[in-house]
Automatic annotation (TrEMBL):
GO terms for biological process: response to stress. Transmembrane segments: none annotated. This is Thioredoxin-domain-containing protein. It comes from Roridomyces roridus. It comes from the Eukaryota.
């Protein structure tokens, strides 16, 4: 079970942020003070969110003990909650707002499991591939994704991107799409989107009962919009099979 880490020094803060960046993790920070009553009220909720979201790094910073950190982020009210990724502020909530804090985690918690940053050349190829995909130039997108995968062969996200591009291409290539989706779920077995891609490829090959199982797995592993997408695809697959 994950629990929030109380930061004891600037060195520990910097090392923790670097570690989270390398792992592709979002960091949720609770800036609090020992004299702050609302901070004490919201603290158990912050701890519960930490236990429920192990893919997010939860930190606590005492603004009086760690004034340099609080000053850097211009913290002036307690509690203040920040969502950070790669050192950049993604969002903020001030006050003992349990619902706002939950939304902050949901909106900025990132994928589960976290996705480490790609090597620079692979990221560049992925961005180019995404641009071609949006323009419906699927052959060119596949070429760019392939170049990225050669540099980062265990990236489930890249494999998932190429899988759907294979299905969208003319003519579609469901066998290649299936191979990519299967590898994506092997390298990241807890990534729900990989099972969506697997289900889509299985459907294209008319292996609908297997597709249903893939979409069910995607729902189990996903949350938010990704889970909603998986549920819609499951409903469509069951309808095709005549299941209720």
């Amino acid at each position: 079970m994950s629990t929030p880490l109380e930061i004891k020094s600037v060195k520990e803060w910097n090392e923790t942020l670097r570690s989270a960046t390398a792992a592709g993790m979002t960091v949720l920070v609770d800036f609090h003070a020992t004299w702050c009553q609302p901070c004490k009220v919201i603290a158990p909720h912050f701890s519960r969110l930490a236990s429920q979201n192990p893919h997010v790094r939860f930190l606590r910073v005492d603004v009086d003990a760690q004034q340099a950190i609080a000053h850097k982020y211009k913290v002036s009210a307690m509690p203040t909650f920040l969502a950070l990724r790669s050192g950049q502020i993604l969002g903020m909530v001030q006050g003992a707002d349990a619902q706002g804090l939950a939304r902050l985690v949901l909106q900025h918690g990132g994928p589960n499991p976290p996705v480490p940053p790609l090597p620079a050349e692979a990221e560049e190829a992925k961005v180019a591939g995404n641009a071609f995909y949006k323009e419906e130039k699927y052959t060119e997108a596949i070429e760019k994704y392939t170049a990225a995968i050669e540099l980062a062969p265990t990236s489930a996200a890249l494999l998932g991107n190429r899988s759907i591009a294979y299905l969208k291409s003319t003519p579609p290539d469901p066998d290649s799409a299936l191979a990519d989706a299967q590898k994506a779920t092997e390298v990241e077995p807890k990534w729900g989107k990989g099972y969506v891609r697997l289900g889509e490829a299985l459907q294209a090959l008319e292996r609908d009962e297997e597709a249903v199982k893939a979409f069910e797995k995607a729902i189990e592993l996903s949350q938010g919009l990704a889970q909603t997408e998986a549920k819609k695809k499951l409903e469509a697959a069951k309808k095709k099979l005549g299941w209720h």
